[in-house]
Write a structure and sequence with these properties.
Elements (H helix, E strand, L loop, with lengths): L12 H10 L2 H18 L1 H4 L31 H37 L1 H16 L2 H12 L3 H28 L2 H8 L4 H38 L10 H8 L9 H31 L1
Helix pairs in contact: 2-4, 2-11, 4-5, 4-7, 4-9, 5-7, 6-7, 7-9, 9-10, 9-11, 10-11
């Protein structure tokens, strides 16, 4: 069959064909995988064969079988059920973390870029100091003061991520602030607050959202690390990081599944979010 020249193809068809051709297959696979993980977390009560806290010492460290497709841990808890329920905490907590960090970071970055001068200098120096301070150490200090737990970990990591988002927002807002439509709104007598809230920040949304998608995998890994260290989720939670910590002791008994199953889940989700996040950031940045 002879291919039609580009001039013979309808203009409306070309953008769709180009978009489909340029979408890497790896991004599609990662997106489908993440969608399945979200659905599995949402319908965990229907999919899990057992309750996540059901203890059966007679089935301790059982390998894969029909009754336990992914085996059991040292307490005889079904690993498949725990991973399904743990996906809820492992996905929702990073989302809340980034929501807190984005509110603080976008506000600081936008204010610094809009006012400039000493305001920009002061906020930039504050974010530089916080950005230079080791994030994990900052989080541990907050947990040492307020106590361990998932809520404290989310708030502490949210504060730790805020300077990173603020610096990124400031750089994007500076470029957006120099555009002609900002001067046009000023000439019309619109206040700076209204311009920022109604026009500047919404125009930054594409770039910021793309950046947040990239950060999601890092936030998930950070919370899992805190849970593994005993600072985040506490027993009997099914958080993936806590499951890795609890399953580590079984390795000396040649039982790898209690640590391997949640560890693989963390790695797979983080990699998938990084793949989708980088692609989404590029696409949203190009559209902007």
């Amino acid at each position: 069959m002879t291919a039609l020249p580009a001039e013979a193809v309808p203009a409306a068809v070309l953008p769709v064909a180009v978009k489909r051709a340029r979408r890497p297959w790896g991004v599609t696979v990662a997106a489908v995988f993440l969608a399945l993980v979200v659905l599995a977390a949402a319908f965990a009560p229907l999919l899990a064969p057992y309750a996540p806290d059901a203890i059966d010492l007679s089935s301790s460290l059982v390998g894969t079988s029909g009754a336990h497709p992914l085996g059991t841990d040292a307490s005889g808890q079904d690993l498949l059920s725990r991973v399904l329920y743990g996906a809820r905490t492992s996905l929702l907590a990073p989302l809340l973390l980034l929501l807190l960090a984005s509110v603080l970071g976008v506000t600081l970055g936008t204010v610094a870029a809009w006012h400039g001068g000493w305001v920009d200098t002061l906020l930039s120096r504050i974010t530089d100091v916080m950005y230079a301070f080791p994030g994990l150490l900052f989080v541990v200090l907050i947990i040492a003061v307020f106590g361990a737990g998932m809520t404290t970990s989310v708030i502490a990591l949210g504060l730790a991520y805020a300077p990173t988002i603020a610096k990124y927002t400031r750089s994007v807002a500076l470029a957006e602030r120099s555009k002609a439509y900002i001067d046009a709104y000023r000439v019309l007598g619109m206040s700076g607050t209204r311009i920022c809230v109604a026009h500047l920040v919404p125009n930054l949304a594409r770039s910021v959202v793309g950046y947040l998608v990239v950060l999601f995998g890092e936030a998930l890994m950070g919370l899992a690390t805190l849970s593994y260290l005993g600072f985040g989720a506490q027993p009997p939670s099914s958080d993936w990081g806590l499951m890795v910590q609890e399953g580590q002791a079984a390795i000396v008994q040649n039982a790898l599944l209690p640590a391997l199953v949640p560890g693989t889940a963390i790695a797979a989700v983080v990699v998938a979010f990084n793949v989708v996040g980088v692609w989404a950031a590029d696409r949203l940045g190009a559209r902007r």
